[in-house]
Structures are given as C-alpha cells and as structure tokens.
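Before the break, one more example. Copy the sequence into your notebook; we will annotate it together after we see the structure.
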Amino acid sequence: MAIGRTNPHAAALRRNATECEKRLWAALRNRQLDGFKFRRQATVGPYVVDLLCAEHRLIVEVDGGEHSEEADLPRTRFLEGQGYSMIRFWNHEVFENLDGVLASIRQALPY
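Here is what the structure looks like once it is written out:
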C-alpha cells in the first residue's frame, strides 16, 4: 500500500500540531535539511505519520508520553512492512537537542 489519499484526520492534526512537531517542522520544511522534501501529517495506508520524506521512504515520528514501543508496534510493523524506515524522537529530544535530532535524520537519509 502506498501513500494514500489524505486522511481527514490529518488536516486536524496539522492545525493542532504540538510545539515539538512545529519546531521540527520549521527546521525541515521547504527543503531546509540538505534539500530533502518532507511532508507533515502525511497519510500512509491507514495511518497518519508526523513527517515523511516520501522520496526516501523515511518516516519521522515525534512522540509524547502517550506513546510506547509496545502500543506502537502494530503501526510500526505495518509501515516497515510497506518498505518505510522509521526514526522516532521523544518530545524532550526535539526541545533539548534539535541539532542532534536533525543530525540523526541526516544519517537516516541517503547521500
């Protein structure tokens, strides 16, 4: 399953983005990270992902306290099964170490 039609829920998520998502999006939008194009709140199959570099099939997720590896496992398995790689950051990482987060995203992208 490829990237699908925009999930109606995605528009609401864009309007109500968390401060962490806004901060990371501000650093990634308009190809600011080495020319890579990212989309926010993109629909992939039945899921809405925080940030997506579709060209390189990389999903970037920013997680708050409501997330856990166990709870997110079915979603992660589905997305990885569709050929996407995922990288996750906790909210505090984005706030406390944005440069490190961006460096990790760079490492996950091909050059």
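Strands lie at 39-44, 47-53, 58-63, 85-90. The two ends are 26 Å apart (CA to CA). Try to locate both features in your own notes.
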